[in-house]
Amino acid sequence: xxxxxxxxxxxxxxxxxxxxxxxxxxxxxxxxxxxxxxxxxxxxxxxxxxxxxxxxxxxxxxxxxxxxxxxxxxxxxxxxxxxxxxxxxxxxxxxxxxxxxxxxxxxxxxxxxxxxx
Amino acid sequence: xxxxxxxxxxxxxxxxxxxxxxxxxxxxxxxxxxxxxxxxxxxxxxxxxxxxxxxxxxxxxxxxxxxxxxxxxxxxxxxxxxxxxxxxxxxxxxxxxxxxxxxxxxxxxxxxxxxxxxxxxxxxxxxxxxxxxxxxxxxxxxxxxxxxxxxxxxxxxxxxxxxxxxxxxxxxxxxxxxxxxxxxxxxxxxxxxxxxxxxxxxxxxxxxxxxxxxxxxxxxxxxxxxxxxxxxxxxxxxxxxxxxxxxxxxxxxxxxxxxxxxxxxxxxxxxxxxxxxxxxxxxxxxxxxxxxxxxxxxxxxxxxxxxxxxxxxxxxxxxxxxxxxxxxxxxxxxxxxxxxxxxxxxxxxxxxxxxxxxxxxxxxxxxxxxxxxxxxxxxxxxxxxxxxxx
Lengths: 117, 390
Hints:
The structure holds 2 protein chains of 2 kinds. By secondary structure, chain A is mainly β. Chain A has strands at 3-7, 15-19, 25-29, 35-39, 53-55, 58-60, 67-69, 75-77, 86-92, 95-99. By secondary structure, chain B is of the alpha/beta class. Chain B folds into 3 domains: 3-108 and 236-305, FAD/NAD(P)-binding domain (3-Layer(bba) Sandwich); 111-232, FAD/NAD(P)-binding domain (3-Layer(bba) Sandwich); 326-384, FAD/NAD-linked reductase, C-terminal dimerisation domain (Enolase-like, domain 1). Chain B is built from 9 helices and 27 strands. At the A-B interface, loops of A face helix 8 and helix 9 of B.
């Protein structure tokens, strides 16, 4: 089921929006005008990627500087080893929607999805 | 370049191997490591691993299924180097010869003289160190930490959180003063004291007491600090002893230019053993931090594969983090020669803050405590507006 993120106008290029889903999702608007959505939690340790440093199509974790490719979720630089999930993004009537992936998330040690075991 | 040999199998060595492959090296890649373990991450050793919150599998630096086509020679120590032949002598009597060499032998924790033969005294650098310390601490009630650096502060915080009685002894005015500056270091120290850690400042350790097993620490002022376990965290010595006869230029580490090239052709050095030139100050210094090793690996791989033809871009400022209690401490830049520091968000006594260090009104460093988002942004400003800090 798709989730409403925010109006496109509220997310300027270079910025990120965090959706308080379970687990949280981060939507990025790149400087090139692309929209990408990935799991917000770094796969290495509990930190919000929406708080990180966006450069091109790569997000650098604000904590330990792991880097992820927004298009594929691939971990491009350690300490993270596992990719983050990517999600589909759509813009309808000026609003950004995310269609969450149904694959299991790669959450860091000690972090679980609420409502599951 | 058909073959590359990397001496050192920790972050700097492994990351250089990855960069070499990523940048197109498809020849042989040999990696020598003195420890038996596959590459592992060291920062958690003084934090979550010591606390028992993460296990050894979580420490692995290699991803599952990652295959870099490396010929591993673990449990083997480099004992000598023939610079002209680019041949490394190894502890098992064999040699490793390659067209290009990467020196990534890291550093060893310093200890105190006269502690050999006493049980209950630890330094913390390797996985084996951490295992031994964790076992010993599981039976301990009183911990004395000698040293006012990050390892000491992290071990103290981790063990205080687990309920131990902890005393932290520093020769300086306050722990972490050298890196964070006096004022901010006092703010962090106050958090330790709130949690019940005793900090003894300006102290000089004259010896350890006990027979067979250490039972305390003696200070120059006559005080005796009883201890079940003593942790010594007084810095590191670069592992360059094996290079002493080689003729390669050494200082406080292997002397390198700003691209990681050593004084010997076809040989680069990265990580804690390497003293890279900082063009801003004209001095060589060892980075000594996790992100520094990662950055150097990328640059040194370019230098090696291009034969030094491709020159590196500007260096990014130092960045490191430390976790102590619920504080996520992040720091970037250098405080040397700063003339002011101001708290720009939060409060040093509250749940977190952001402080900016300046020299002549220009930011030279930034410190964040539980301010990940703000810190990222301030750090970015530091990186995009490089300043002369030497």
